[in-house]
Amino acid sequence: MSSLRTEGLTKSFGGVLAVNGVTVELRDGAINGLIGPNGSGKTTFFNIVTGLIRPDSGRVLYRDREITRHSPHRIAHAGIGRTFQLCRVFPRLTVLENMLVAVRRTRLRELMAGLRDAGETERARHWLRRMGIEHLEEAEARDLSYGQQKLLELAAVLMAEPDLVLLDEPAGGVNPALIDRITGLVRDLNAEGRTFLVVEHNMDMVMGMCDHVIVFDRGAPIAEGPPAEVREDPRVLEAYLGV
Ligand SMILES: Nc1ncnc2c1ncn2[C@@H]1O[C@H](COP(=O)(O)OP(=O)(O)OP(=O)(O)O)[C@@H](O)[C@H]1O
Question: Residue 110 falls within a domain, yes or no?
């Protein structure tokens, strides 16, 4: 059984068919890559799976239960975490506050009043250490570099202990040293049992990190398989090169 699968997902914006009948299954326990030319529907697919966009038709199933059209909060609660293409953190909260808000958005006022749960603070520090940014816990998020903000965003996602993590362009706007660090972290987190789905334009990262790659073109999957196979697939070359 695949933990996440979709059946015939379709979404159009006006006249643009962004996602066109997508039926895919993720490999459980793997680092799955999702690649494709600009505008091929990858982010829209992510947004449908995580409840930010409602599909026109089709279904999303997680652990054989339908989660189509569930709220983002409910989907996160079911065990699916995600990061965003343009990293999302609360700029005026400290690093530690960002971590705590991630698990208790509804109790923001208490948090701001200084009522911190010791267990959660410890867990937050654990993830910050794993990301290598524990020394920044009292810094405001807006004072972090973009790469550090990406690490914070991932750490905050992990506070909810997701089994499946969707990463939208983790290498985007990040320097090569940090790309290596993020790659290493994803591998470690995967080795601990988390499944990943990674949208990424950096082919070195995709080819070096992913076990299984799905390729979208014009809103639908055109190929999938191990990175080395996908890279040689004529349909994939055609989609990218337009030949
Ligand atoms: N909110 C929207 N309103 C109108 N059109 C949209 C919207 N979101 C996406 N689209 C269109 O849907 C298509 C798929 O876009 P999407 O962002 O999902 O592709 P992508 O593969 O993630 O692209 P990229 O690699 O550039 O991020 C594109 O033609 C895009 O212009």
Answer: yes
